[in-house]
Amino acid sequence: MEVTRTVPVKLDVPGERRDDLHQTIEQFNTAANYTIDHGSDDNGDLILNKSTIHDEVYHDLRDETDLPANLVVRAYSKAVEAMKSTVAEWEKGNNRPLPSFDEPSAVYDKRTLTINDEYATLSTVNGRVKADFVLGEYQRSYLNDDDYEKRMGTLHYRPDEDAFYLHIVIQKEVDQRDGDRVLGVDLNLKNVAVTSTGRFFDGGELLWGQNHYFRVRWSLQDKGTRSARQALRRLSGRENRFVLNRLHTISRGIVEEALQHDCSYIAVENLTHIRDRMDAHDDQLKRQMHNWAFRELQEQIAYKAAEYGIQVESVNPAFSSQTCSKCGHQSSTNRDSDGWFGCNECGYEVDGDYNAAKNVGLRLLALPEGKRPSGLGNSQLALKSGTLNVSDVSNVHSSIEFERESTDKPTPSGVGS
Ligand SMILES: [Zn+2]
C-alpha cells in the first residue's frame, strides 16, 4: 500500500530573497486566475483538458509573468483541478462559484524544487532561491527516512508568523504485513475504544473536555453578540485541538497494541452503526461532536496503521454488544444497564465493551470468501493471551449470517449500546 505524508517545514529565507518568494506566489495566483478567466470554450463550458488549456494560456502566461515554464504548468494545472471539482459539484446540482486563488501558496514539483537534507532550492521569478530548513524532531523523523520519496511540495506564506513554509509531500510503498491475526476494536461513548486484547482507552478526559466546552459554547451561543461569536470561533479551534490530541493518543495506542500482538488487521465497526446507536435524546451538537470524533479516530487509526502495512477493515457490528463472544448466543438481556455482559446461555461474564470488541474482530474473521480481505487466510483473533478462531465459537456463525444480510437495513435504535 502507498503511504503519503505532508510534512510542513519552516524555511529560513535570506532577507534579500524574501521578495522573490512573495512575487512568485503572487504571480502564481495571477496565472491560476488567468487560467480560470480564459478557461472556457466557445460554448461557455469550462475546459478540463490540460493540453487544451496549455494551448490556450501557456504562451500568454510566459509573456505576461516572470514565472519559469514549470511553475506556469503547475499554475494552470492547479486551475484545471479546481475547475474539475467545481464541475463535479455542478453536476451534483450544487451551486458553486468559479474557483479563484488568493491563498498565499504556490505548487512545486521535481523540476522547480530540489529537496536536500537541510535545505531546499526553489525556482522563482528571479532565479533559484536557497532556503535552509528549520527542523523539529517530527520533521526529521520523516525527512531522514530514506524509504520516503520526496516528490513535490507547496510553498506557503503564513502572514501571522511572517514566515515561509514548505509543505513537502513524501511517499513510500509499504508491503502489507504478513500474517492473519486480527485486532478487534469497539468504539463507544464510555471508553471511546476497547480492543479484543483487553486494552481500554479511557474517554473520561475526552468527554469531560467536550462537556466543558459544550457548556461554554451553549452559554455563548445564547448571547449571540459579536464578541460572543468571536469567542465561539476561538473556542471551536481550541476545543478541536483538545479532542484531536486525545484521539491521536488513542489511535497511536491502538496501532501499538496491534503491533505488540503481531496483528496484520484491525477490525473496526462501520460508522453508520455508530450514528444509529446515538442516544436519540442527545442534543444535536453533542451528536455531531461524537460523529466527528469517531470518524476522525477511524481515519487516524487507518493513517497510522498504513505505515506498518496494517490493514484497517470495517464491519457491521449490529448486536455486537448483545451477542456472547464465547458461545454466540444473542439476547438483549445479555447486557445490563451498567455495561456488564452476562450470557444467559453459557454464563460468560465480562465487561460489555470488551465483549463487543471481540465480536467486532470475529465479524471480520467470519466474512465469507469474496468479501474477506484476500490476504486474511485462516484468520485468528488476538486476545489478551492467545488467539481465537471463528470455529472456536459455536453458534456465532448463525448470528453473523443474519448480520451479513442486513448490512444495508437500518438498525433498530438502541441495539448495540
Ligand atoms: Zn455465551
TrEMBL record:
Keyword Repeat assigned to the entry: answer is no
Superkingdom of origin organism: Archaea
Q: Which Pfam families match?
A: Cas12f1-like_TNB
The yes or no answer to whether the keyword Nuclease is present is yes
Q: Where is the Cas12f1-like TNB domain?
A: 294-360
Keyword list (alphabetical) reads: DNA-binding, Endonuclease, Hydrolase, Nuclease
The record's InterPro entries line, in alphabetical order, gives: Cas12f1-like_TNB (IPR010095), RNA-guided_DNA_endo/Transpos (IPR051399)
GO MF, one term, reads:
DNA binding
**Listed name of the protein:** RNA-guided endonuclease InsQ/TnpB family protein
User: What species is given as this protein's source?
Assistant: Halovenus rubra
